[in-house]
Amino acid sequence: MKAKIYISLKDGILDPQGKTVEHALSVLGFTDVRGVRMGKYLELSLKPGPIETVKKSVESMCEKLLANTVIESYRYELEPEG
Q: Of 43, 36, 40, 46, which Cα lies nearest the Cα of 67?
Protein backbone atom coordinates (compact mmCIF):
# COMPACT_ATOMS: atom_id res chain seq x y z
CA MET A 1 0.00 0.00 0.00
CA LYS A 2 1.18 3.53 -0.73
CA ALA A 3 0.54 6.60 1.45
CA LYS A 4 0.81 10.01 -0.21
CA ILE A 5 1.25 12.66 2.48
CA TYR A 6 0.89 16.41 1.92
CA ILE A 7 2.15 18.77 4.63
CA SER A 8 1.69 22.55 4.56
CA LEU A 9 1.96 25.49 6.90
CA LYS A 10 -1.26 26.44 8.64
CA ASP A 11 -3.00 29.65 7.61
CA GLY A 12 -1.51 32.66 9.33
CA ILE A 13 1.99 31.14 9.66
CA LEU A 14 4.68 33.17 7.90
CA ASP A 15 6.16 31.34 4.90
CA PRO A 16 9.53 32.96 4.06
CA GLN A 17 10.40 30.25 1.52
CA GLY A 18 7.11 30.86 -0.28
CA LYS A 19 7.79 34.62 -0.31
CA THR A 20 11.25 34.01 -1.81
CA VAL A 21 9.77 31.86 -4.58
CA GLU A 22 7.03 34.44 -5.21
CA HIS A 23 9.66 37.19 -5.57
CA ALA A 24 11.84 35.07 -7.87
CA LEU A 25 8.86 34.31 -10.11
CA SER A 26 8.11 38.04 -10.31
CA VAL A 27 11.72 38.79 -11.28
CA LEU A 28 11.45 36.14 -14.01
CA GLY A 29 8.42 37.94 -15.42
CA PHE A 30 5.61 35.86 -13.91
CA THR A 31 3.80 38.89 -12.53
CA ASP A 32 0.40 37.20 -12.31
CA VAL A 33 1.44 35.17 -9.22
CA ARG A 34 -0.20 36.64 -6.12
CA GLY A 35 1.08 34.27 -3.46
CA VAL A 36 3.10 31.10 -2.92
CA ARG A 37 2.85 28.65 -0.02
CA MET A 38 5.50 25.93 0.19
CA GLY A 39 4.96 22.48 1.63
CA LYS A 40 6.26 18.93 1.74
CA TYR A 41 5.19 15.82 -0.12
CA LEU A 42 6.11 12.31 1.00
CA GLU A 43 5.34 8.87 -0.41
CA LEU A 44 5.54 5.89 1.91
CA SER A 45 5.39 2.25 0.88
CA LEU A 46 3.58 0.32 3.58
CA LYS A 47 2.79 -3.31 4.27
CA PRO A 48 -0.80 -4.08 3.34
CA GLY A 49 -3.26 -4.44 6.18
CA PRO A 50 -6.72 -3.47 7.35
CA ILE A 51 -7.46 0.06 6.11
CA GLU A 52 -8.30 1.43 9.57
CA THR A 53 -5.02 0.10 10.97
CA VAL A 54 -3.06 1.67 8.10
CA LYS A 55 -4.86 5.01 8.58
CA LYS A 56 -4.08 5.05 12.30
CA SER A 57 -0.45 4.21 11.58
CA VAL A 58 -0.05 7.00 8.99
CA GLU A 59 -1.75 9.52 11.29
CA SER A 60 0.55 8.50 14.14
CA MET A 61 3.64 8.92 11.91
CA CYS A 62 2.46 12.40 10.91
CA GLU A 63 1.65 13.45 14.47
CA LYS A 64 4.88 12.11 15.98
CA LEU A 65 7.48 12.88 13.30
CA LEU A 66 6.52 13.97 9.82
CA ALA A 67 4.53 17.13 10.58
CA ASN A 68 5.02 19.81 13.22
CA THR A 69 1.33 20.00 14.09
CA VAL A 70 1.77 23.28 15.97
CA ILE A 71 2.42 25.12 12.69
CA GLU A 72 1.66 22.55 9.98
CA SER A 73 -1.37 20.65 8.82
CA TYR A 74 -1.36 17.42 6.87
CA ARG A 75 -3.58 15.25 4.73
CA TYR A 76 -2.96 11.92 3.12
CA GLU A 77 -4.25 9.54 0.50
CA LEU A 78 -3.94 5.77 0.54
CA GLU A 79 -3.81 3.66 -2.59
CA PRO A 80 -2.80 0.14 -3.56
CA GLU A 81 0.75 -0.22 -4.81
CA GLY A 82 1.62 -1.59 -8.18
A: 40
Domains of the chain: 2-79 (3.30.1280.10)
CB atoms under 10 Å from CB of 80, counted, come to 7
pLDDT tens digits, one per residue of 22-56 = 999 999 999 999 999 999 999 999 999 999 999 99
The secondary element (H helix, E strand) that includes residue 17 is: helix 16-27
Rounded Cα distance, 24 and 65, in Å: 31
Question: Could you tell me which of 12, 5, 6 has the C-alpha nearest to residue 58?
Answer: 5
